[in-house]
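Here is the promised in-class demo. Please do not try to memorize the tokens; focus on the logic of going from shape to residues.
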């Protein structure tokens, strides 16, 4: 069975907050196949493993922006619990604590997702430093395009072939065809495209 069929896609869970790529506790819980309370309990029971830089609580402004911009966070609107955001280091530390059937596959998927973003950030930085139309620059553009395609394909609806569109993301263009059957699917697509734009901007600053 393919990894994508075992767990939800990791890339679509990564968001940019405070100039960092993070995953919220509720999304971490979904990835690991546990409840959000289990994630928070693990953090509470192991405070020494989550120093500054590993996890942070969202403020009200950040929470409000997420609810407004991401449909999947609408349940957070009236919640009295402050969402927690895990940085890459926090996610790796959490992986040493959680013991669920999905733990190994989820940790591998998280490592691979962050590796793609790190490689993309290096490519984005290196491309302008190369001379125009050189072999090296063309190779970097090609690799960057591959990474963007991998990231966005993972986030797009799997149904396909009826509506074509082109996205201009950073210095890369990407074409894809999807079947947009309803407004809800279109809204999800627009959210994910905008989120990827933010991720690319964040990748360029890493």
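The designed amino acids, position by position:
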């Amino acid at each position: 069975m393919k990894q994508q069929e075992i767990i939800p896609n990791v890339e679509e869970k990564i968001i940019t907050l405070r100039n960092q790529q993070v995953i919220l506790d509720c999304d971490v819980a979904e990835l690991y196949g546990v409840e959000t309370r289990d994630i928070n309990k693990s953090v509470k029971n192991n405070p020494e493993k989550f120093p500054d830089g590993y996890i942070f609580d969202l403020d009200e402004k950040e929470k409000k922006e997420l609810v407004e911009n991401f449909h999947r966070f609408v349940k957070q609107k009236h919640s009295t619990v402050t969402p927690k955001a895990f940085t890459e280091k926090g996610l790796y530390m959490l992986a040493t604590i959680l013991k669920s059937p999905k733990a190994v596959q989820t940790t591998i998927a998280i490592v691979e997702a962050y590796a793609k973003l790190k490689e993309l950030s290096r490519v984005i930085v290196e491309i302008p430093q190369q001379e125009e139309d050189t072999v090296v620059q063309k190779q970097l553009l090609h690799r960057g395009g591959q990474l963007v395609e991998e990231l966005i394909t993972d986030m797009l609806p799997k149904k396909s072939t009826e509506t074509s569109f082109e996205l201009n993301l950073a210095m890369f263009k990407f074409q894809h065809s999807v079947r947009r059957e309803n407004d809800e699917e279109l809204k999800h697509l627009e959210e994910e495209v905008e989120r990827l734009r933010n991720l690319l901007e964040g990748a360029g600053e890493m």
